[in-house]
Amino acid sequence: MAASKLSPTDAWGSTLPGPPSRNNFGSADLSPSGLFAFSSGSSVSVVDSRSLQLVSTIPLPPPPGALSPFVTSVRWIPLPLPRDLLSTEPSASHLLLAVADRHGRVALVDFHLRSVVVWLNPSSDPKLGVQDLCWVQARQDSHVLAAISGSSFLSLYTASGGIFWKYDAGTEILSCLRRDPYDSRHFCVLGLKGLLLSVKVLGDTENDVVIHEMQIKTDFSELLRLERDGNSSSSSPASAAFPLYFARFAFSPHWKNILFVTFPRELLVFDLQYETPLSTTPLPRGCAKFLDVLPDPNNELLYCAHVDGRLSIWRQKEGEQVHVMCTMEEFMPSIGLSIPSPSALAVLLSQSDSTMQTITKLYPDETSSVDFDNPFDFYDESIVVSKTTFFSLSDDGKIWKWVLSAEGVEDALKNASDLDISIVGADVALPGAIQKKDFSNLEDGLVVTPTNKSRGQTSSSSFGRSDLSFKISLTGQLQLLSSTVSTLAVPSPSLTASLARGGNIPAAAVPVVALGTQSGTIDIVDVSTNTVAASTSVHTGVVRGLRWLGNSRLVSFSYSQVNDKSRGYINKLVVTCLRSGLNKPFRDLQKPERTPIRALRTSSSGRYLLILFRDAPVEVWAMTKHPVMLRSLALPFTVVEWTLPAVPRPGQGGPSKQSLSASEGVAAPADSTSVGSDGSTEETVESFAFALVNGALGVFEVQGRRIRDYRPKWPSTSFVPSDGLVTAMAYRLPHVVMGDRSGNIRWWDVTTGQSSAFNSHRDGIRRIKFSPVVAGDRSRGRVAVLFNDNTFSVFDLDSPDPLAQSLLQPQIPGTLVLELDWLPLRTDKNDPLVLCIAGADSTFRLVEVTVNEKKAGFVPQSKSVKERFRPMPMYSPILLPVPHALALRMILQLGVKPSWFNTSSTTLEKRPHLIHGMASSSKDLRSYMIQLPPLGDPVVPEMLLKILEPYRKEGCFICLLYKLTKRSPQKLPSPASGVDEATMLSKISSTGVWAPEARKCDGSLRLMAFEREELRKRANERLPWHENLEGEDCIQKQVHELISVGNLEAAVSLLLSSAPDSPYFYPNALRAIALASAVSKSLLDLALKVVAANMVRTDNSLTGTHLLCAVGRHQEACSQLQDSGRWTDAATLAATHLEGSDYARVLQRWADHVLHAEHNVWRALILYVAAGSLQEALAALREVQQPDTVAMFVLACQEIHSEIVTELSSLEDESESEYASGEDTVPPDLPGLEPGKEEVTAVCEYFQQYQRKLVHLCMDYEPYTD
């Protein structure tokens, strides 16, 4: 038979993941482009975080000969869209996802191809599961992956596979990894007992790794007790051995070398440079243990997740690295949740939203901003200071999207007594001390009270506000499978009705599947969208059986055993109406029964129900509006199955009256039954086949309230199996197919008596399902067989040798199949056969089986849905083919009018995001460009707009890009000063856009501080943090900070405070004398007196730098600091003492280091501009192959230069201005970027080549259709 190969793209696109659990270690990651990846079971799922739609689920292939282990860590590679089109073909390297599992395996998964690219350690130790992953950039063109495996092993892998460095922490239990946002080569590792590792990766060899060990003092007595009491292996990962004991940390986005660390009951601020905690705050009374810590990217706020699903908000005290809790918010609301409540597994903070807020602050809009991600967020009179988006993941299969808004006016947080916290929405009870207003353990006596005070105008970007209030809103939720699947049911394609009391309206086949779960909920899956359309909590225990009554009602059962002496069972039967959402129990008994229910069987019309008990009679029920039991059948049944609708013959428009005997009445059309005055159909007949414990077979007919024996044509040979036990059966007129516990499959024609049998050479048979058949099908005997070993096969019983032409190979390696059934949506013989499969890994999958007519076999293929429907487009451009994503990027760079984004198919007149002036396809698309730039090919924008037209028509861009297209820069103020090249260059170098009041470094922009005032300000802010630190090492570093900011008096005082017996006294005395001589003679005299009285010997590496400062050799001092790796200190010293080209040289050398050592081209670019080295900035962008960015950089510099020239010239008097307006006046060119300069010409040619290559690639790719 033909070889089978699953196409990953479609197969994984038709997989619905089960809920994540603590076995997945809460692993989740949110990419900067908005793709939310999380693990559940042995799969990795990706969700579009903006529209909260499931993009795909990727099962990780299992190890050889083993089941698929739990996925325990996921991490997106930190790469942008590749733009090196001129040297390589387009690749999806930006969609690489590092995935690790409980067996210690680490794989790189290409999400674009949805396949494993490489296994980094295929020969891993199954005992050493992976705890956490972290990407580190070792060189400009390569990344390495750091991984914690087992309890104490830290490993580094190259992206091509292979380990090159390993570290053993001994008795420490390593918990988490995080990369330094300031230096992509540097990452830290934290252990549960307080070990902190600082690792810098300079290459991909063992000698290129520099590691430094530190210890954080913390109370881990509870951990020691858990180690003594626990049964887990000593090599187990931290989250496996101690699932509720978390140690997490995060780098500060505002301050270099600052870490925020949480242990279960304390929050610390740790200084990597000083190697000591700056503050330690215990967990307030009544609060659950810490789960994770998330610093706000824009403001000096900390968010701490707790194991009970709450989020605490902490503010920083003025001038200190000390944080105080403000309030607590619920991330797991108790309304509408099951009992017990689900657990929060992970909380993530969206960084992309903070970037949008930073852009908004740099280019403020006078109008009120509306959050168009939230359609209900219209104009609000409150002043929103900031908005932070969170995503939380719970073990009931839900992904929650929250928006936390901070509202208020200026000067807040400056005085804690003025801070009012308002919890808007549900009344959330604050835990412990906060709820009881016992603030003895909170600093400054913080009082948390509601407030309704008036609000003022929006203030600047710095986070100083009073009357600050927090409001949290649930803006979205994605429901996946709520629990492990226990059973599934597919609607029967009956021609009879599904109304409560019957009827004769044909019931349409609906593309839904019902899944019963172990938590007692029933999930309704819409297979056309691969989503959970509804989830209903029906039972308190496991749903053990589930069947459809027509296509709108379900019947399910569960049971529980009582604890009294009778040891009986309480059986619960419920009818669920999907239209109304009501659950109606029936067959309620007052006392427990002797045996539990074993199974349910419903007729294809939904009128009749068979209830099978364990060692008890079978009950027959009529499922009317009020179910009625017809009779009890006291026979020893082993298996019972209702008949499926009769198969239409080729050329037969529909079943005729003559062909529908009483035994085939299930398929009777509307005119073959007599309808009573009350609408009931008493003449409708349905039948079911059965097998008894002795192997005997039979068929019963149910007609109205009558049940009679149907006498079929018995087979000519004996049909009793050797062991006498039939375990599975399927019945579709005229065939009855049976399977037994020895793996034998028998079938029998009830009209002719013909029969046959064969042995499957497999384990016992649990389930047999006939495939859907339509007119024109070659075969009517295709069946899917589920074996007791949780594997399945597909056989064609009409073929001469069913076993030889079966589908026997494992279709889902590593996954056990719990239940299966066919999806009854075929309408044509060319439509594929689709199997619905519930896996033991909690996934729900659709597997397509295509009949190979030439080779008379079955080929398992991916399921491809004819029409993929989504309630709204997924507007993540990162999901587009790479050339199309780059085309959209270029359109935005060149400038497109907002009206182009509008489309009639996705907008309504009254919606707030409607942009007037809808684009027309027949119109000249070039008119939608704001202004064709002087760079590049002028034809390219129109061609790119045509390529993007299919996406625009689907509305894929409007929601995502509305905020950007709506923003317009404010008019810049004009200073009253003359115009010269030095002034203009200084303005551009220091600000980029000449708006001094807008250059307040806030949020993530603090990573790029380079201005004099900003450097000095931040250095002075750091000084108070270290005043109370003790130890000579700390004193030496404090002296260095004081000298950097020019505070020599304080430095001398600190140096002279050294004890006479200190080994640091001699170098301290030498520096104190030299520094005192630079201040005043009186201070020098005092220093000499102190030094003369005490003599000791020692040395320090910073002594030479300080002596150079004392004699005014600041340029050399800066060079020494840079040589020793103290780049920020060197810049601070230069900002204090150097001017002009001397200061620029320090910044340029810093920029070279950031570019070539830290691999941060964007920070290097800003430093080059600050130093006035525009040509070096061009070279840097060309070096990293960013043709569009370098062209836009040249264009931006020229536009800013022209704007500054115009505004400065307009202020000059016409008679005195050198650049007065006139016909002959030509603005001077920007030095270094003159239009005719060789470097600028090369940039323009480079950009044009890139544009042409992009257009050709876009035309080669088909538009992405989901």
TrEMBL record:
SMART domains to which the protein is assigned, alphabetical: WD40
Record's protein name: WD repeat-containing protein 11-like
Domain WDR11 first beta-propeller, first and last residues per copy: 18-478
Lineage: Eukaryota, Viridiplantae, Streptophyta, Embryophyta, Tracheophyta
Region spans: Disordered: 1-24, 650-680, 1211-1233
Transmembrane segments: none
Taxonomic source organism: Camelina sativa
SUPFAM superfamilies, alphabetized: Quinoprotein alcohol dehydrogenase-like (SSF50998), WD40 repeat-like (SSF50978)
Domain WDR11 TPR: 900-958, 961-1258
